Amino acid sequence: MHGTPSFLTRLGIQLPIIQAPMAGVSTPELAAAVSNAGGLGSLGIGPSPVEQARQMIEQTRALTSRPFNVNLFCHAPAQPDAAREAAWLQHLAPLFAEAGMAPPSTIKAGYKSFIEDEQAFDMLLELRPAVVSFHFGLPAAERIDALRQAGICLLATATNLREARQVEQAGIDAIVAQGIEAGGHRGMFDPMAADEQLSTSVLVRLLVRHTNLPVIAAGGIMDGAGIRGALELGAAAAQLGTAFILCPESSANAAYRQALQSERAGTTRLSASLSGRPARGMLNRLISHGAAAGSPPPADYPIAYDAAKQLNAAASQRGNHEFAAQWAGQGAPLARELPAAELMQRLVAEWRGA
Ligand SMILES: Cc1cc2nc3c(=O)[nH]c(=O)nc-3n(C[C@H](O)[C@H](O)[C@H](O)COP(=O)(O)O)c2cc1C
Q: Can you say whether residue 96 is alpha, beta or left, with left for phi > 0 and alpha for psi between -120 and 50 degrees?
């Protein structure tokens, strides 16, 4: 499957390198730089209001004529539960006190799932990006059909073989095999289901041998050797997230960049304390507070995110970044601070070089 030219042709790209969609971190500038370098840049519009998402797509189009990927969240719509939310806010009360604010009286989901977002669907059909990818699940069959008929190449994340089979049966074009090493939210369809926590390499082999779709390896790939290893295992391409966070084109703030270049990068945790769904980030006080004995379960995704975002907004004004969502994968200490075009050159040289 080395390089899998037919799949790259289907995507309209030259290099088997995908810059992962990273909501809040990827930008039109980053996606365009990666696409212009021959890979596939991605926008993460999961939490964006439709008009902002449209602007991001249009801005990317102004910066590149090459294909790029637009990523959406297909989580089960949030389940409000006043008692659960109150218990979670009460648990966070000491952290809010530290940030100099009272806990909010209520919290709510700040964005919809694509599953229930008619406007986002209409916008995609109108703008027709070359590639669309789904995280946390799949949209309804009619939507998948309509997007495919519009000529859009579709990708979806799977964290195990069961999810991958659902992706294959749904008529998606390729599977993003997301291993436990990965930074950011774990794409598992049901966050309450038992999780085998498969590594990227085991998951890639499982999906290469037991499905018929091209497999995109994601999780812990930080350099050309990692890309070569993924292709060697039968992946058709590698998707890198954490490796691109330090690019000047990303929207990661100074505190995030600083943490990623410090010893903190060596300690990541998978935690639902920030958003309500498991996600891997650099260990901070909000993550350890949520892991403390006797901690109640966080509010449902993305209701808990509302609390974390308010907490972080107040604390960071005081120079305290201990409650921020600083997603990073296990390979974080290998991240390099380079403009995206240079990082792409470096990745290609390393991958082909040895
Ligand atoms: C900061 C950050 C944000 C992310 N946001 C998204 C997202 O919006 N949609 C998505 O499908 N995956 C998201 N991911 C997960 C990536 O798609 C990918 O699985 C992961 O970055 C691969 O692992 P790596 O970070 O070790 O390269 C995010 C990852 C990071 C690091």
A: alpha
The reported pTM is: 0.98
CA nearest to 201, candidates 168, 177, 236, 237: 177
In this structure, which residue's CA is closest to atom 13 in ligand 1?
Answer: 22
Query: Residue 241 above 70 pLDDT?
Result: yes
**Are 150 and 176 a contacting pair, CB within 8 Å?**
no
Instruction: Give the model confidence (pLDDT) of 98-155 as tens digits.
Output: 999 999 999 999 999 999 999 999 999 999 999 999 999 999 999 999 999 999 999 9
Q: Which of 75, 155, 185 to mutate to test the pocket of ligand 1 (most atoms within 8 A of CB)?
A: 185
Distance from C-alpha of 167 to C-alpha of 305, rounded to nearest angstrom: 27
Segment 181-206, tens digit of pLDDT? 999 999 999 999 999 999 999 999 99
- Residue from 160, 122, 135, 125 nearest 26 by CA: 135
Nearest atom in ligand 1 to 245's CA: 1
pLDDT in tens, 168-177: 999 999 999 9
Rounded mean pLDDT of the chain?
Answer: 97
Q: Which residues lie closer than 8 Å to 169 by C-beta, 6 or more apart? A: none
Q: Classify 43 as helix, strand or coil.
A: strand
Tokens of 49: 């209001």
Distance 334 CA to ligand 1 centre (A): 16
Distance 102 CA to ligand 1 centre (A): 32
Is-contact 249 30, C-beta < 8 A? Answer: yes
Residues at CB less than 6 angstroms from ligand 1: 20-23, 25, 44, 46, 71, 135, 157, 178, 181-185, 218-221, 239-243, 327-329, 331
